[in-house]
Amino acid sequence: MDLIERVAATGLLEPARPVVVLVSGGRDSVCLLDVAAALSGADAVRALHVNYGLRDAANADEAHCAALAERLGVPLEVHRAARPDDAGGNLQAWARDVRYGAAARLAAAAGAAGRVAAAHTATDQAETILYRLAASPGRRALLGMPAQSGRLVRPLLGITREETAAWCRARGLEWREDATNATDRYARGRVRGGLVPALRAVHPAAERNVVRTAELLRDEAEVLDVVVDTALAGRDRIAVDHLATLPRALARLVVRRLAERASGAYCARAAGRLDDIVALGDGALDLGDGARAIVDGGVLRCERTPRLPARPT
Length: 313
Prior knowledge:
The chain has 313 residues and is α/β, with parallel strands linked by helices. It has two domains: 3-209, HUPs (Rossmann fold), CATH 3.40.50.620; 235-304, Uridine Diphospho-n-acetylenolpyruvylglucosamine Reductase, domain 3 (2-Layer Sandwich). The protein is built from twelve helices and ten strands. The chain has helices spanning 3-10, 27-40, 58-72, 91-109, 122-135, 140-143, 161-171, 187-202, 206-232, 240-245, 248-263, 274-278; strands spanning 19-22, 45-51, 76-80, 115-117, 148-149, 152-153, 237-239, 283-288, 291-296, 299-304. Helix 2 packs across helix 7 (161-171). The longest helix is centred in the last third of the chain and has 27 residues, at 206-232. The protein starts with a helix and ends in a 9-residue tail after the last strand.
């Protein structure tokens, strides 16, 4: 089965279904745009390139994407974004938020069926899992990126970076190289340049084995979610005495579920506070990540951590 058949088998790119393809100009996104045009039809595809103006090659990348879109008969939307001088936090996180925000708006304009396609590959999946294993504990690290999350789809998760390069060469499609990907300035670059090659040296199928493990664990996670649902029986709280009698792994998952429902975000640290919750008695306990546990009358519930009051100026 060739690459396009494998992508078609995912069902993530459907004929005539509107899709916004994120295009950086790199090999993976060039491959994805070409495959999307073939599977969904050029009339259903819209390419989005975000020019952050952060690199000397930014304008050349934009011109390359424009030429590619013209060749494939796909309209291109260019979004130019400048990071505010007073913006704090992680540069990559800011860029990601800008990119996905712009894509979501374009997809929404196409109606409920509109999707956003990102060119994450099996190689990216392996790197993500390895990075998360190093940076944070918990089951989420091993699950990797989902193939679909709301409007967002990742049709190339079963395709390696080497395979996207081979596809582009066979199709005569040039791509741009981002020099920052080869540096160790960012954690992802250190994983890509050091850890992944080391694993390949141990076993040539290391990346595929990591990705396959994530697929199996994602399937098993669905079973665990059902077990947690059963333990909570549709409630947003649980008696602490009952929580203490559950198998520890299940009790941790129950705590995390309650915390994430309350905070609306992933709560990596909540499960680690199980013993503290059981020993708390009536009272409140900060779980981190925007959630706190409340035990009242021997019953545990979670709520969003209140914002700190503004400091007087």
